[in-house]
Structures are given as C-alpha cells and as structure tokens.
Specification:
- There is one protein chain.
- The chain folds into 4 domains: 5-134, 3-Layer(aba) Sandwich (Rossmann fold); 149-313, 3-Layer(aba) Sandwich (Rossmann fold); 318-401, Helicase, Ruva Protein, domain 3 (Orthogonal Bundle); 403-452, Orthogonal Bundle (Arc Repressor Mutant, subunit A), CATH 1.10.10.60.
- Helices cover 48% and strands 13% of the residues.
- It has helices at residues 13-25, 36-45, 62-72, 87-95, 108-136, 149-162, 178-187, 206-214, 231-234, 250-262, 288-293, 299-305, 322-337, 346-354, 360-374, 387-395, 405-419, 424-431, 435-444, and strands at 5-9, 29-33, 50-54, 77-82, 100-103, 168-171, 196-200, 215-216, 228-229, 239-243, 264-265, 274-275, 279-284, 308-311, 343-344, 379-380.
- The strands form 5 sheets. Strands 2-1-3-4-5 form a 5-stranded parallel β-sheet, sandwiched between helices. Strands 7-10-13-6-14 form a 5-stranded parallel β-sheet.
- It is elongated and about 100 Å long.
Length: 452
C-alpha cells in the first residue's frame, strides 16, 4: 500500500493530538479536524484509509458522520471515540460499519492496536482483491492458477502448442502440475471432444506395457481370453499422456519409437496394422537428458517426443503464486467440506510464503486441505498446519530480515502465543520465562488485548 492516510475528527484538541501522534509514530499520514464538514469534504476528494471519529461534534451528529464517511468510500475504516455515557451508541456504530470504538480517555496502546488492526484488515482486503483480479486474468483452464511471469509464459506456450498437432515433453519435479498442463493442452486443442487417456509407465514390465498400449488379440498369450484394443486405439482422435516416461524399459522404448514413426500399431499377437491418430504428451520428473547421456533412454525416442518441451518451475521458485494458490485451495476445500474459511492468520501467511515445498503444489494443496478441515472459525491458524510447518514457526524462518532484538522478541512471543492459543502457562513454559514476566512483555508489546 502507498502512504496510509488517517484522519482524526475530534473537537477536543488534546485528545485529537494524542491520537494523531500515536498514528504518526506508526508511520501513518495524519490530518486533524475539529469539524465534521471540512473532514467529510476532504475525505470525498481524497479518501482516508482510516478515521478516528468523535461521536459528539459541534456541527454534525457522529452517527451521521459515520454514515457519510462510509458512503463516500465503502472501504475506509472508522474507529469511534466516545465518552462512557454513550457506549451503547458506540456499539450501535460498530453495527453500522464502524471498525471498533474507543472510550475516552484514550490510551496510547489501544489507539495503536486498533489502528494497526484496521490497517491490517484493509491490507488483507486489498490483497484479496488483487488475488481475485489476478485469478480472473488469463484464466486458461478453470482451476489452473498462476499469475507469476513464468506461469504466464507457460500459459501462452500451452495455448500455442495446443492448436498444433505435435508431441510434447513435460519435464518437472513432482507435484508441479504436469498432469494439469497435459489436460490443459488437450482441452484447448481441436481434439478436446475426443478422449484424454492417461498411462503411467512406471513399474510395469515390457509385456504389460505392450498389451496395455497396443492391445492384444485373443490367445496372444496365456490369459488373453478375448481381443482387447490398446489405449492408443481407444484414444483415437484424442491425446495420450505417458507419465513417468523415464521409467519405460529400454526394449519397450524401441517399440514405442516404431509406433510413433509409423503412426500405426499392431496388437500383440496380431498382424494387421491399425492407423493411429493421437497426440502424445510425455511427462517425467527425471532429468531425461541425463538418462540419454547414461544410455538409459534412447536418444531417437527422446527427440521424437521432445518436439516441444515445457519445464514447470518449482513452487519455491515462483512464490508470488503461493497466496493465489492458497486462496484457490481454500475455496476448493470450503466447497468440498462445507466450511467457511475466509483467510489465514498473518503468521500462517508468512509461513506458507517462505516454506520450501519439496512436494510443490501438491504439498501446498494437501496442507490447505488439512487446514480447512481442521479450522475452527473463519481463519486458518498456526495450529491447523502440519507439525513440520509449526516447527518452522518456532525455529524462525531465517527470512534474512534484520531486526532489533526487541522486535525479534516481540515477534517470537507472538508466535508462541499464537501457537498455544494464547495459553499463558504453556507460552511461559515454552519461552522459559516466569508468567509475570511474560505478562509484562505482552503488555509492553500490546499483545495482551486483541490477540486472544
Ligand atoms: N497451477 C496450479 N493451479 C492449481 N492447482 C494445481 C496447479 N499445479 C498443480 N496443481 C494441483 O496440484 C496437484 C499436483 O498436480 P499434478 O498432478 O498435475 O502434478 P504432477 O507434476 O503431475 O505431479 P507428479 O510428478 O507427482 O505426477 C494436483 O492436485 C493439481 O490439481
Ligand atoms: Mg503427474
């Protein structure tokens, strides 16, 4: 966010100045007003992100000011300032869209906390909006998420390749979305109404792969009781994804190469060649070039398959997409589980952003699936994450940010408090300090009021 603009509207000068000073110390741009009308007209020409509004004003009723303030800009947040006498009105104000209220005399740290919370809320809302926009942009295949430059490039490559009838080789680590890409290519190709057939080459003998892909005639081998067409035949006009192509036995590679060259297949035990009209997409999470060098993969087959190759990045190499994917998976699993998760806590957000994801998108998907299943309310908390991520939180992420000891202490205490659900006994034990000390620090860092 650019400069965060705040306003204080209060005809009591000392009170207004106090609030303004606290906000200013927090890096906000602050303007003070003693009358509602000039405040509102300024707000209309350049909306404030946040305003502290006194309920009792000389020129307009506070509730009316609130209404006009929100009407001018729905996204602006208001915090109502009130004397004890009008607490009921203040509560009413929050029902009408005020973010919160403060009773006079205002305490510094209440001001600071509420302002920070309001700001966080605004920033989160801004993020969500950006996410929605990014998701809408170039949404090639429903559910295929990626706004990072690399993914955008891959999307345009997919589009180009889809309409050309060439073989494609997908090389990428596990869980990066190879199968998604294959399906996207098929769905965007003229073959989209014909079958998409998946075959995993891993862990099968040459004989089995042969009979699966090429089919067999009745009596071709013991157990071949009936004639069975192969996958290549059933995919007629469509697309075949050969997954884990790097695992294909060498002897089988020769046969496959032959089929691809001739565009014809002969069933096992048969003699009549059958014409094929299929597009082959091969995928592997191994380094095929290296396999070729080692003689484990035939070079001629490699070139036949690799007319166009697409490499998908590791998730850790395109972290910009993480928040997008998180939002996407929350939606997906809300639907599946009938839940209503709306967001992740700031700490969870940070963790998810910095984690390394050896299992790539699939791992992130599993993490969110689990968290949505476990989440108690609208927010995913640190306790909803798997232990390996929670450990990261306590050990620190080593994000490279240079902090003061005080800031580090504050963040660490907050992490432990969040991890323990603000259980002070547990937290003081983990932190190795007496409960009274913990309590004093919590007060000092403003962790005592609004966290729990
Ligand atoms: N860009 C993405 N947007 C949304 N979901 C994705 C994306 N990439 C991957 N996924 C999801 O992550 C999971 C793994 O994707 P996929 O099966 O395509 O990966 P893969 O590369 O084929 O993995 P493996 O090598 O382990 O077979 C799937 O559930 C898929 O829906
Ligand atoms: Mg796969």
């Amino acid at each position: 966010m650019t400069a965060f603009r705040a306003a204080v509207l209060d005809d009591e000068e000392t009170a207004a100045r106090l609030v303004a000073r606290v906000l200013d110390q927090d890096g906000m741009e602050v303007e003070i007003f003693s009358l509602a009308r000039p405040f509102l007209s300024r707000h209309r020409e350049a909306p404030f992100h946040l305003a502290f509004i006194d309920l009792r004003l000389p020129d307009l009723d506070g509730m009316e000011v609130l209404r006009l303030f929100k009407m001018a800009n729905e996204d602006s947040e208001a915090i109502i300032i009130t004397g004890h006498a009008s607490i009921e009105t203040a509560v009413e104000a929050t029902k009408r869209g005020a973010f919160h209220y403060l009773t006079k005399p205002c305490k510094r740290h209440d001001i600071r906390l509420l302002a920070r919370r309001a700001r966080e809320k605004l920033e989160l809302r801004g993020e969500n909006r950006k996410l929605k926009l990014a998701m809408g942009k170039d949404n090639l295949i429903p559910g295929f998420v990626g706004a990072s430059p690399v993914m955008q490039e891959i999307f345009s490559l997919i589009k180009k390749v889809a309409v050309v009838n060439c073989n494609v080789l997908l090389m990428a680590e596990t869980g990066t979305g190879k199968q998604m890409v294959a399906r996207a290519i098929h769905a965007l190709s003229p073959r989209r109404d014909k079958p998409f057939v998946y075959f995993n080459c891993g862990g099968f003998t040459e004989e089995l792969i042969c009979s699966e892909l090429f089919g067999h005639e009745k009596g071709a081998f013991t157990g071949a009781h009936a004639t069975k067409p192969g996958l290549f035949e059933t995919a007629a006009g469509g697309t075949v994804l050969l997954d884990e192509i790097g695992e294909m036995p060498l002897a089988m590679q020769v046969k496959l190469l032959h089929v691809l060259q001739e565009r014809q297949v002969i069933r096992v035990g048969g003699t009549a060649p059958i014409d094929l009209d299929i597009r082959i997409i091969a995928a592997t999470n191994r380094n095929l070039t290296e396999l070729v060098e080692n003689g484990a993969f035939r070079e001629d087959l490699f070139y036949r398959l690799n007319v166009v190759s697409i490499r998908l990045p590791r998730l850790a190499d395109r972290r910009d997409d993480i928040p997008l994917l998180v939002a996407h998976f929350i939606d997906k699993f809300n639907m599946a589980f009938g839940k209503d998760v709306r967001r992740v806590s700031p700490q969870v957000q940070e963790l998810l952003f910095h984690y390394d994801y050896p299992g790539n998108v699939r791992e992130l998907e599993n993490i969110i699936q689990r968290a949505v299943a476990l989440a108690d309310g609208e927010e995913i908390k640190i306790g909803d994450l798997p232990a390996r991520l929670q450990r990261l939180a306590t050990e620190g992420l080593g994000t490279g940010e240079l902090l003061t000891l005080e800031e580090l202490e504050k963040r660490h205490i907050r992490k432990v408090l969040e991890a323990t659900g603000y259980n002070r006994n547990q937290a003081s034990r983990i932190l190795g300090i007496p409960r009274t000390t913990l309590w004093r620090r919590m007060k000092r860092y403003g962790l005592d009021r609004l966290g729990g």
